[in-house]
C-alpha cells in the first residue's frame, strides 16, 4: 500500500473515494466498482466471491479495484463496512405493522402497500444518504451564481422547470434547459465560469445530458449532479454530488425522493437569499391574497 495513502474515515468516505476514482479505472475495474457502489449495503454481509459473482467479474478484480484506490486489498477495503454497517432504513415497529395492515384492506391493498413501503424507504434513504452541510454548500453556490441552469430531460424535464420557477422567485436568475428544439449543451452557450449547472440524469443516461455536463466541467462551471447511482457519468466531475434512491415496484421510477431533495435545496436557497428575495416572496404571497378564492361556505 502507498505509504502516503490516508485511509478514509468511515464507510461513506470509502464509497466517496471509490466514486471519485471511477474515471481512472480500467473498464473491468470500473464494472466492479459500479456494482460495489450500487450495492454497498451488501459489502459487509457478502463474501468477495459472492460480490464478484453478482458483479459478473472475477474475485481478483475486486482485489485489484481496492488496490487501485490505495487499499492493501479487498478485505482492507471492506473493513470500515464491517465495523459499521451502512443502514439506509431505520426500524420503526409501528410503521412496519401499519404497512403490513395495508395489505389486508381491499383488492388493490397489496399494490397500495408496496408503493407506500417503497416511497417511505426512498425518502429515508435520501435524507440518511446526505447531510445538511452538503445541501447548504450546493444552495450557497446557487445563491451566489450570476445564473443557475437547471437541466433535466425526460421525466426530469418538468421537474427542472418547477425547480427553476420556484428558485427564480427567490433569487432571480435561474433558468431551465433545454429549451424547445435545442440540445442541453445549446442552453449553456452563454454560460460563464461563475455560473452553476444543476443537472439531473437517470438510467438510461442520455448522451446529450452527459455532453452538456462535460462541457460545463471543461469550462470550469460548478456542477451540482443529481443521479440514481454513485457511478453515474454526470457525477464524475461534479462539484456537488447527490444520489437519489428511485426504488419502485412499478415500471416507472419513483420521483418522491428526488422531489424531497429539490424542495430541501430550494428551502436552503431561500434561507441563504438576500432580504430582497424575501420581499419578493412576500409580494407574491400578497398578490395571491388579493385574488378572490373559493371558500368552504360556497356552493
UniProtKB/TrEMBL annotation:
Gene3D superfamilies: Glucose-6-phosphate isomerase like protein, domain 1, Winged helix-like DNA-binding domain superfamily/Winged helix DNA-binding domain
Residue ranges of every copy of the SIS domain listed in the record: 138-275
Keywords of the record: DNA-binding, Membrane, Transcription, Transcription regulation, Transmembrane, Transmembrane helix
Ranges of residues in domain HTH rpiR-type: 12-88
Residues spanning the membrane: 251-273
Pfam families: HTH_6 (PF01418), SIS (PF01380)
Keyword Transcription: yes
Biological process annotations from GO: carbohydrate derivative metabolic process
Domain of life: Bacteria
Molecular function, one GO term: DNA binding
Family annotation (PANTHER family): GLUCOKINASE (PTHR30514), RPIR-FAMILY TRANSCRIPTIONAL REGULATOR (PTHR30514:SF18)
Protein name per UniProt: DNA-binding transcriptional regulator, MurR/RpiR family, contains HTH and SIS domains
Top-level taxonomy: Bacteria, Pseudomonadati, Pseudomonadota, Alphaproteobacteria, Hyphomicrobiales
